[in-house]
Please model this.
Amino acid sequence: MSNIQKMFNEYDVIVVGAGHAGCEAAHAAAQMGSKVMLITMNMNTIAQMSCNPAMGGVAKGQIVREVDALGGMSGIISDKTMIQFRMLNRSKGPAMWSPRCQSDRMRFAEEWRLALEQNLNVDFWQETVTGLLVEDGKVTGVRTQLGLEIKSKSVVLTNGTFLNGLIHIGEKQFGGGRTAERAATGITEQLVQLGFEAGRMKTGTPPRVDARSLDYSKMEEQLGDEVPNKFSYLDTPTLKEQRSCWITYTNHEVHEILRTGFEKSPMFAGRIKGLGPRYCPSVEDKINRFADKDRHQIFVEPEGWNTVEVYVNGFSTSLPEDVQYAALKKIPGFENVRMFRPGYAIEYDFFPPTQLKSTLETQLIQGLFFAGQINGTTGYEEAACQGLMAGINAHNQVHGKEPFVLHRSEAYIGVLIDDLINKGTEEPYRMFTSRAEYRTLLRQDNADLRLTEKGYQLGLASEERYQKVQQKQEMTARLIDALKKMKVAPEEANAGLERQNSALLREKTNLYQLLKRPELDIHGLLDLSTATAELRSQYSDEILEQAEINVKYEDYMERERSQVEKLSRLENLVIHPNFDYSKLTALSIESRQKLTRIRPETLGQASRISGVSPSDISILMVHLGR
Model:
């Protein structure tokens, strides 16, 4: 054994890749007590924001808050490094509210690295992993490009876009996992030999430009929220100053220039085989698919507090660099643009996630977990939550603890993983609020109430988090109780109700009933009288908002809870892992094939597999003794 080989003890968990999934996996397992080795090809790109310098957004913001509530780091890092904050969909109901921040790209990566370095259970190694060590169907470590063998009891693969990554710019193509970074080879080939099914996906990124060359007077300014919120439920810093983003538009001339490059487009010429994200199409795809549209929105987003680099959101492209540049110059405000680097498309290997258990462990190899884009997802937030869950479950398995699984009714994270392992994905999977059937229960404001106790029991969420969420529960309940008890008379309330265009009172009414009126918010309600104003001063804005949502949406939430209880009966019916579906000839052939391949753990999971009908579930129920 070489001297350097002796440096490596056997680890509990090896995490391969240090993107958003890898960082959360390493942090979670280490925080829970596992000895973790984080292996990355480049220590300087830990938690690199490869694409948009932003966290959160529609449904994604809910995920970041859930990761935070469980004890993950993405929310804390985002709060420390944001340059702008906006709560999206405020005009809609609270189930749709989604936090989003613009991030300082360089500081985000720096804060993540520093956070991991401060954890004594995390070791680092900079090198390429070329293969896995597998014995008797169980992973025992990894092999590196230098020929080193690092032993571990579990491995989490979070390879992002690096597995056989191929970058396309016009007719040019070259291997790479990210611009100026080489691809990773060897792992896909070994996994296929071991019996895994692999596929190809594609994503893309826009050009980056020099802010000093832009004319912002020709664009629309997009300000952050007047009172910015944050992601973490802990006392992270509140944003005091914000940087603006800007909006401009493509036009007919831009579209015509882009069309001149179509014959050299790797997408249209068929050189790209992988499917790209439907909801984040390239600019050439947009003008091709939506030929009737005269213009498309372009979001001009600063990459940090001090850098002049700008991200051109909405202009993702793999057209030749000279076509990109010529088209950019015709966008209002971009007439004198200087480009730092062109946009490109990247193809990479992924493994259909129907090959995973609900813990994100692979069905074929014990102790091997997949998280992030290797599972066919897109987005930092989707990757981060998978990394968190894989890290938790790798730790639990190594230490003989129960698997940790979140159900669809408990978290967006549960929806995402359930979708992946049951339905698979043929295009990069992105989370939306519409995917969550219980979204009134799974709001961004109550992620801590839903999940922090679970994180605390795991040994991941801190005592401080646990105490804060208990206090929030107690204060919210106390306020709702006070609203039920406090009544206002017509003479003290009607003047205020009239100002707010609300029906006048004829008799004393409690505040709880008044708050159910759609036109009244809690601040207006507690301004009705001196007594109500005194009540308001006793509670924070967070508690006031939580109480208002609970009162106004009580009936909707009760309806969803009732649905959850009905469906939970199926979730409690466990199917033996070796159940032989081929013998149930009453099942459809498609159902037998899919049930055999996916191996659902419960009848509830089986019911959500595409192609398994309600009658198939009834047959299974009979055979399970119901």
